[in-house]
Amino acid sequence: MRVDITSKPVAVPLAALWVAALAAGLVGLWLRLTTGHELANYTSSIPWGLWIAAYVYFMGLSAGLYLIAASAYVFRFERLQPFIKLGLFAALVSLSAGLLIVWLDLGHMERFYTVYTRGSTQSMMAWLVWMYTLYLLLLTVSFWFVMRADMAEWATGDGWRGRLATLLVLGRTDRSDHNQESDRRTLGILFTFGIPLVLATIGGSGALFGVVGARHYWNAPLMPILFIVSALTSGAGLLALLVALLAPPEERERREQALRFLGKALIGLVVTYALLLWAEFSITLYADIPASSEAAYQVLGGPYPWVFWVFQVALGTIIPLAILTARPRSGDWIGLAGMLVAASFLATRLNIVIPGFVEPQLAGLDLAYEEARLAYDYFPSAMEWLVLVFVGAFATGVFYLGFRVLPLMGGRKEAS
Amino acid sequence: MTVKSSRRSLLRKLAKGLPALAAGGALAHIGLAGKKAGPKGEFAGDPKVWREKFLEAARAAKAAGPAVDTLQAPIRPSDLPAMVMNLGAADVIPLTPVRPNAAIAKKASDIIRMQEELRKAMEKPIDQRKWIMVIDLQKCIGCSACTIGCKAENNLPPGVVYRPVIEEEIGEYPNVTRRWLPRPCMQCDDPPCTDVCPVGATWKREDGIVVVDYDACIGCRYCLAACPYGARYFDFGDKYTDDTPAVQAYENSPSPEYGKEWTRDGEGSPVGNARKCQFCIHRLDVGMLPACVTTCIGEATFFGDKNDPDNLVNELIASPRVMRLKEEQGTNPKVYYLV
């Protein structure tokens, strides 16, 4: 049942779908840039919507991919070695997508740089921006070192790829074992520094919500832990999907081994995340203090319960676990389970961001003055969905381009 | 003319002049004041120019001190700030015997007293005054005049309402009553909304008012999430006459917040910013009480400097009826309620 995405019957519809998504997404982007936030459905009562959920989602994917790839390198997970470059590149693209969509969410996009020039050390958000910037730099440098030997090899060739590689390799064309060993040592240092940084960064993303005392649904010490586990879970899911889809036929054995490893990891991570979710919801609902429990009730039975039951529970937890336990040795099935986990995590992110706002801060505030922009109900507008489609199409396009141009898999043995 | 009668005359002119001025200003404000209906002379025409001149005159009067003799002259808008500035507590004394209603007399006296206290407080350095608001819930009749007065004063767009009035029904029929709770910004002494700002675009001033620098705010809306009272709003750029044949001119008239003129055209600030009640700083700066205080027809809203123990607001918060919202959060609101 293996899907070869480069075969014509698969590639053509996928390409058509991508072009349609990009075209629709560009319409959304144009609307966003010309009408500002006027066409968005979030309100002053629910000031963060789909884009913030998507930002957290992309950041989680990126951090998860990085943590898995870097751990595979540092702790020598042999079975993941061939896919470290793939994981790092996907992390880079995902990070870019997250930064892009959170930038589009700002009321004044042109002022984003002021977080660097006049950032407040008291703000968790400012710290996050600085940490993400450091992470972006670290990831870019790490990816450069991972790719340097390949680029040095290209630089010896002719054509655009040779010229581009000559430019990118920054003069370091030496491909001797000694030089590659030096690269490996540098990478080891970068990853050793990067793993705690990314743990702090994604944990900090949880703290961004957790420190808001005014929102009882968020204000839990569990939040940073929840974000770290969710990053690893969604990252492992996406890596499983990418390996299943993109590993070349000649790497079949290594693909299966990697996927089995990821399948086992996914079982542990999905169960751990479900356990944390259970802890959060059971404690909140058992205590049943309205200020905290109302948001949980809204998740389970509010206007959009299917986001939780269908996407988060069924598609994101039960079905993947069923697949992973029933077909633990099938790479294709593990890839499918990974896709379900990775995709459904957008619903998980929505169910973190939005419910924090649904309960009015003061009883009766929702009825005190009724205007559309003060509503406590939220469903993303077409423009918001289209902007997300644009970011998704952009990320997919960049990733596919990289996949076609760069040798992201196979060939070189990394740490071994 | 005796001193008493001259003061009475001044107040009568004020009484006539203020509503006329307010009506003219309001008409101009919503774009309905034509050449016949609008203010005359130097204040006719564009409300933006009108407001600018008014504020200029007020500042000039404040700088010049009590020197304007308006007793015999017809009231002009430019005279009003100086007249208001020069009123003292003694001004109301002659009127007391002719007031038919003691409550009305008290309201006038409270307003004049707060006005006088405000003027006194404004003479102090900013770090020596601490503004507080007191709202008597037994007096609030739920008319929402404060809400609308605030909307008009700050020229607020759809979806931005600094002072909604929450309605609460207590008990069950036949033992049932209603209570209204106006909710301005609490101007917390420990505001959770300021620390979260990634660019330090919002802070508590030395006089305790929490402000937003519209030119620095990046519109991330983290402060909206962090406010425990839901007192911050995002300006989405909406207009009341969106989806009508033409966006009306009054939508583009400026907001006077923070003593500047903020015109909402395109995506420039304050569009795309967090916005909030700031106790009408632009009015305080020219010696005027916040709009919600002067528009409260239920005599329920009081304002003053907490640092002056003799002030009316300090008398009020000494009452055992006093409470603040969500005190358990430790935000130390500077809006007090008398329940």
Description:
Chain A is mainly α and 416 residues long. Chain A has a single domain (18-405), classed as Up-down Bundle (Formate dehydrogenase/DMSO reductase fold). Helices cover 72% and strands 0% of the residues of chain A. Chain A has helices at 8-35, 50-74, 84-105, 114-117, 124-155, 159-168, 177-210, 223-246, 252-287, 290-301, 305-326, 331-353, 365-368, 382-405. In chain A, α2 packs antiparallel against α3 (84-105). Chain A is globular and about 70 Å long. The two termini of chain A are 32 Å apart. Residues 411-416 of chain A have low confidence and may be disordered. By secondary structure, chain B is α+β, with helices and mostly antiparallel strands. Helix content of chain B is 31%, strand content 13%. Chain B contains 10 helices and 10 strands. Chain B has helices at residues 3-29, 47-64, 80-86, 102-122, 145-154, 192-195, 222-226, 281-284, 291-294, 312-317, and strands spanning 131-136, 165-172, 175-182, 202-204, 210-212, 232-234, 274-276, 301-305, 322-323, 335-338. Chain B has a 4-stranded mixed β-sheet. A two-stranded antiparallel ribbon of chain B has the order 2-3. In chain B, β4 (202-204) and β5 (210-212) form a beta hairpin. In chain B, α2 runs parallel beside α3 (80-86). The longest helix of chain B has 27 residues, at 3-29. Mean pLDDT of chain B is 81; it is low at 1-43, 66-75 and 92-98. Chains A and B meet through α5 and α13 of A and β2, α7 and β6 of B.
